[in-house]
Design brief:
The chain is an alpha+beta fold. The protein has one domain: Translation Initiation Factor IF3, CATH 3.30.110. Helix content is about 25%, strand content about 30%. Strands 1, 2, 3, 4, 5 and 6 form a 6-stranded mixed beta sheet that branches.
Length: about 120
């Protein structure tokens, strides 16, 4: 009987390991989605002209899962990259292993293909 209870609890915990993301749209323009494989995480402001279209944030015990979720969100918004800074990664709660990852979704405003 304990196994029957433990399995649904484990499935529920796995499903909530990456909490609902937060999205703050700064630009209401609807853009076509981009492929997640083309969205880059960057830690320095790009040389190319760009605009910040949203701030996205997600929480997870696994940082890689949070990273993938940010990229997925940026792609859905039509972003080209996610700009991270020194406050992008933070712990949630005092004794928690859960981390929050936050970034700025940017789109390049020129037509060149290089960073």
């Amino acid at each position: 009987m304990n196994r029957m209870i433990a399995l649904p609890i484990a499935v529920a915990l796995a499903a909530t390991a990456c909490a609902n993301p937060d999205i703050l749209r700064l630009d209401p323009t609807l853009r076509p989605a981009t492929a997640p494989s083309t969205v880059h995480l960057i830690a320095q402001e790009p040389v190319r002209p760009y605009a910040v279209i949203a701030i996205v944030s997600t929480q997870s015990i696994q940082i890689e899962r949070a990273r993938r979720e940010l990229i997925k969100l940026a792609a859905q918004l039509g972003g080209h990259a996610i700009l991270l800074d020194n406050s992008s990664l933070s712990r949630i709660g005092n004794d928690s292993n859960e981390q929050q990852l936050t970034g700025k979704v940017i789109v390049y405003t020129d037509s060149t293909g290089s960073n």
